[in-house]
Amino acid sequence: MAIRVTPKLLQSFRQISRPLNSAPSSTIPVLPLNYDEKSDTLVSKPSKTEENNNANLRSILNLNDTKKLFSTFSNTKLLRSTINLNMAAIDSIVDMGMWVMRSKLMEVSGFRQVILESVKHSFYEQFVAGKDLIETSQSVRKIWDAGLRGMLNYGLEHAYDNDSCDKNYLTFLNTIESTKFFPPSSISFVIVKISAICPMALLERLSDLLRWQKQDPSFQLPWKQNSLPILSDSSPLYHTLTKPDPLTPQEEEDLRLTHDRLTKLCQRCLELNVPLTVDAEDTKIQPGIDYLTYNSAIEFNKLGEIPIVYGTIQAYLKDAKERLLLATNAADKMGLPLGFKLVRGAYMSSESKLANSLGFDSPIHNTIQDTHKCYNDCASFMLDKIVDKSGAVVLATHNVDSGKLAAAKARDLGIGKENDRLQFAQLYGMSEALSYGLANAGFQVSKYLTFGPVEEVIPYLLRRAEENRGMLSSSSLDRQLMG
Q1: CB 215: neighbour CB atoms within 10 A?
Q2: Which residue of 83, 153, 322, 334 pairs with 232 in a disulfide if CB–CB is 3.0 to 4.6 A?
Q3: What's the CA gap between 459 and 197, in Å, rounded?
Q4: Over the stretch 191-209, which tens digit does the pLDDT of each residue have?
Q5: Alpha-carbon torsion (66, 69, 75, 76), positive or negative
Q6: Is the pTM of this model over 0.70?
Q7: Coil, helix or strand for 417?
Q8: 3-class SS at 280?
Q9: Beta-carbon neighbour count of residue 311 at 10 Å?
C-alpha cells in the first residue's frame, strides 16, 4: 500500500522535531558540511529565555577552551592546519588549483610530479587520511587515541563498465576486511558509493524508470525487488520527461551483478559487525541509489538491532523531510530499523544549473534558513527514533548550531556515548573544534576519512571543491581558534 505524506503526518513531524529548533542559533558563523552558507545579516536581541537556552547549550558544548580542544595537536600540526585552512578558504587558490590539475601541463611528467608533490604536502595531507590502508591506519590510531572514531572512505565513484565496477568492489571489500586489524571499535563505518559498483548508465536508467513509475503507478518494473518509498510528491521528476524503455536483457544482467556486489559487501559488514553507509549523490541518479540501498537494508537490518546498512539524506533538498518520513513509516510497519547519515548536501551548483537549463525550479531549498530548519527537523526526528530503537543516525555537520542543538536534545533524551545509534561526524582535517567539543561533551564522534593515492583522490577532492566552495572553507571556527 502506498504511503502518502499527509498534512497530519507533517504536523506530527513538526511537533516531534520542534524541541531541536526551539533554541536560537549561536552567533558564530560556521559553514555546514559541503554547503556554501551565508551568515544572517540581521540579528535580533535575544530574550531572557533565549539567553538561558544559549547558556544551556554552551554548558553542553564548550568550544572556548582551546587548550582542551587541541590538546592532542602538536604546534607543528596546528601551524600547518592554520596555513592550509586559510589557503583553502581563498577562492583564487582553489580556482588556480583546479585549472592546473585539469590543464595539459599535467601531461608533462616533470611538471606533473612537482605539482602532485606540492599538493600532497599541503591540501592532501590536511584532508586525506593516507595513500593506502597502512597510512590510514596510522591516522585512525591517532584520532582513536584522541577519543574519535573513523569512517573509511576510499575515494571511488562514477564507474562506467562492469570491469571497473568489479575492481572497485574488490577495493571496497578490502577496506571492509581491513577493519579486522584496526583497534576494536575504532572504525564506525565503511563508506560506499553506488556509482562505483554500478555502471553510471544503468543507474541513470534505473532512476528514470523509478521516476516514471512515480508518475504512473501502473507502470510495471519486473526487475524491481523489495524496497521502501523512494520518491515523494515533491521530488524532482524533470530528469525523466518521456516514458523510458524497459531494461534490456543486458541491463538486467548488469543490475543482477550490481545487486551481487552490494549484497556481498553488506554480508561481510554484517559478519564483521561494521555498518556500511551508502553515500548520496546527485538527484539524477539518487532514486536508483536509494532503491539499491533500501533493498539491502530490508535484507540485512534486523528488528531490535543497530542497522548494518545506512542510507544518506541530503537536507538541502526540498523533498528530504518527506522522503525521510515515507521511508521510516514504511519501515516501521515492516518492523525494520533504518539508519541514515544526515548531511546538508554536496551538489548545489550542478543541481541548480540542470534544473534551470530545463526550465524548472531548483530542487534545493530557496534559503539557507530553510536548509538549516530541514536539517535540524530531520535530526530531531531521528533522535526520537533512537529512543524507541527503530532508527539510528549519523549527524554529519560542520555547523556549530546544529551540533549544539542536537547535543542538547540527545542529552535530554539520555543518549550518550554508550549508545551506538548516534554518531556525530565531520570531515578529516576540518571542524576539529566541533569534533573534539562534541567528544568532550560525551558523544561518539567520527572523522570521515577519505584515503587513496594522490592521483586518485585529488580529482575527487577537486570535484567536491568545485561543487561547493563552502566545503574547504567551512572550518572558519578552527581558523579563528588555531590562529
Answers
A1: 11
A2: 322
A3: 18
A4: 999 999 999 999 999 999 9
A5: negative
A6: yes
A7: coil
A8: coil
A9: 24
More confident residue, 40 or 443: 443
Helix (H, G, I), strand (E, B) or coil at 177: helix
DSSP character at residue 471: T
Distance CA 4, CA 374 (A): 19
Question: Among 296, 260, 272, 278, which residue's Cα sits nearest to residue 186?
Answer: 272
Q: Sign of the C-alpha dihedral, residues 205, 206, 211, 216?
A: positive
Cell of 394: 549519523
Quick check: 304 and 315 in contact, CB under 8 A?
A: no
Smallest CA-to-CA distance from 462 within 52, 103, 57, 76 is with 103
465: its cell numbers: 571543491
Q: Is the pLDDT of residue 65 over 50?
A: yes
Q: What's the gap between Cα 192 and its chain centre?
A: 11
Nine-digit cell at 40?
544572517
The DSSP call for residue 268 is H
Q: Where are the beta strands (DSSP E) in 106-186?
A: 149-154
Integer Rg of the chain from CA: 22
